[in-house]
Recover the amino acids of this structure.
């Protein structure tokens, strides 16, 4: 049943049309755009293009209306418990979102002796801003302690017990990642609230979850969410920060800093409408199934090692928590070489480093990241090429 659903949706991506279309396997970097998003942008640019927030004439008013409508759409897409009091600030992506939270909220609210807990082994976008905030505060004579968010070695999830051991009366902020951009695991962030108690603000990097699965700020009970619109099928250079209204000090980012990316902003409304109509649960199920197909295929070869907890080896309930991101390494062939070989076969993957704040084992690997437009055939094409490079089939490095 999902097959027919998927074919109908894939057909809506112009860039993927044609029998000789390459295989796009880098959706964790940015997602492809359905026709509905392109149409919304086109319609806007040919009927109402103007600057936002300053007009007295029709096009400017229409632009402002679309921007404000998108702000409300971000709230509903994130299942906001209190949309009347929350804030949405538009950014160019998750990195700028997290930097904005660090600069405009954290540095304003921390006091001498305060402590924060942040994830240094995740994407660098969720590490550097907090260190930058610490530097700014230190320069003002405010000393804070920055703790590394602890991980379980096996599952790569956050270690709840170790986290509990870090929380003190001075803990003022916890930053976490919803879905890891290399291992593809849901980091169990819904458990963080129980560990840190009701009063510590939790900030979520949702770059790899928004647009892939339902993200509910109500269920997750978080205070800040930063995400990338462009990874959720909106235009390049889009994203937002959502900040809850009901608890904690208000978040007041710098307002319009220059002219906003109006077409990009409203493309998020179109993308969210499209994704919800397609069905986020099914999108999630589809990508995870493709990830399992790839992981199972790799397990039948000798030369490949999958990083993190392999999808198909986790318990059934855990398979549901894992996303369509599979990162692996060839035991003899370097990852950039492998990336080039795959590119020659029309297979577009991410190779080598992955912007991890603290590299290590992931530094040289190949990442395949999937979305609803990918197909089982594409996974098999990839596995066919990988098999020709396998020791079992006589390949030599
Ligand atoms: N956080 C995570 C987990 C990511 O995967 C990414 C993108 N690779 C980012 C942050 C940065 O997103 P952007 O490039 O949109 O700023």
């Amino acid at each position: 049943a999902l097959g027919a659903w998927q074919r109908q949706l894939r057909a809506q991506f112009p860039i993927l049309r044609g029998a000789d279309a390459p295989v796009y396997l880098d959706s964790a970097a940015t997602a492809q755009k359905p026709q509905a998003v392109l149409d919304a942008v086109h319609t806007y640019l040919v009927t109402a293009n103007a600057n936002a927030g300053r007009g007295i004439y029709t096009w400017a008013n229409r632009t402002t209306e679309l921007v404000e409508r998108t702000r409300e759409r971000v709230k509903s897409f994130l299942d906001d418990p209190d949309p009347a009091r929350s804030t949405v600030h538009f950014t160019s992506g998750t990195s700028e979102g997290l930097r904005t939270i660090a600069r405009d909220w954290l540095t304003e609210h921390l006091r001498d002796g305060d402590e924060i807990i942040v994830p240094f082994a995740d994407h660098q976008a969720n590490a550097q801003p907090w260190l930058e905030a610490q530097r700014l505060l230190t320069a003002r004579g405010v000393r804070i302690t920055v703790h590394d968010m602890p991980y379980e070695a096996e599952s790569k999830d956050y270690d709840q017990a170790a986290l509990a051991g870090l929380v003190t009366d001075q803990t003022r902020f916890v930053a976490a990642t919803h879905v890891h951009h290399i291992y593809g695991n849901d980091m169990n962030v819904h458990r963080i609230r129980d560990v840190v108690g009701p009063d510590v603000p939790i900030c979520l990097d949702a770059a790899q979850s928004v647009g892939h699965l339902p993200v509910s700020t109500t269920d997750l009970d978080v205070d800040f969410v930063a995400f990338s619109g462009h990874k959720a099928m909106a235009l390049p250079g889009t994203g937002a920060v959502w900040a809850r209204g009901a608890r904690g000090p208000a978040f007041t980012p710098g307002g319009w800093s220059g002219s906003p990316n109006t077409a990009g902003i409203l493309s998020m409304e179109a993308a969210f409408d499209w994704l919800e109509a397609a069905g986020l649960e099914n999108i999630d199920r589809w990508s995870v199934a493709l990830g399992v197909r790839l992981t199972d295929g790799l397990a039948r070869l000798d030369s490949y090692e999958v990083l993190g907890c392999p999808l198909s080896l986790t318990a059934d309930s855990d398979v549901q928590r894992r996303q369509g991101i599979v990162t692996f390494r060839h035991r003899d062939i370097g990852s950039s070489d492998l990336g080039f070989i795959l590119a020659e076969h029309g297979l577009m993957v991410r190779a080598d480093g992955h912007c991890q704040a603290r590299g290590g084992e992931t530094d040289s690997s190949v990442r395949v990241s999937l979305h609803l437009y990918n197909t089982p055939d594409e996974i098999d094409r990839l596995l066919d090429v990988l098999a020709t490079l396998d020791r079992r089939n006589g390949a030599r490095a």
The chain has two domains: 2-30+279-393, 38-277. Residues 28-29, 93-95, 123, 125-126, 177, 181, 205, 207-208, 228, 239, 355 surround 4'-deoxy-4'-aminopyridoxal-5'-phosphate (CB under 6 Å). Residues 40 and 235 are 11 Å apart (CA to CA).
